[in-house]
């Protein structure tokens, strides 16, 4: 579980990490309860399409596969909404799991360095 904080409102949210067992067990209801309407609709449409193509059997596989990715998707959507890490443990988790990129290191300012020119003999 990681903690994200909205920089503009100060609201703090706990976000689960890893495999989403709640999504595995309760399916579409988890994104609905979290207020993630977009992913609830996507999960519903994928399940519906898979069920129609496989006479209902394929929809059994959508939930376990989606549960593997959903917590990471939810964290990314929270970051897009203005949330950021609230502590160093959360920051290191986000970087290690490639959810956010590490902060770039300051580069050298080479604007005052002499410019190389390519002069050809004519």
From TrEMBL:
Q: Which domain of life is it from?
A: Bacteria
Q: Which residues cross the membrane?
A: 12-33, 39-70
**Record keywords:** Membrane, Transmembrane, Transmembrane helix
Name of protein: DUF2628 domain-containing protein
The organism is Selenobaculum gibii
């Amino acid at each position: 579980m990681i903690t994200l904080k909205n920089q503009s409102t100060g609201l703090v949210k706990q976000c689960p990490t890893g495999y989403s067992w709640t999504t595995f067990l309760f399916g579409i209801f988890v994104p609905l309860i979290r207020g993630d309407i977009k992913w609830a609709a996507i999960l519903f449409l994928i399940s519906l399409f898979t069920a129609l193509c496989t006479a209902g059997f394929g929809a059994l596989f959508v939930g376990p596969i989606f549960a593997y990715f959903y917590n990471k998707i939810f964290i990314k959507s929270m970051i897009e909404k203005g949330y950021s890490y609230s502590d160093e443990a959360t920051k290191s988790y986000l970087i290690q799991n490639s959810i956010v990129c590490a902060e770039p290191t300051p580069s050298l300012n080479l604007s005052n360095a002499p410019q190389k020119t390519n002069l050809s003999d004519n």
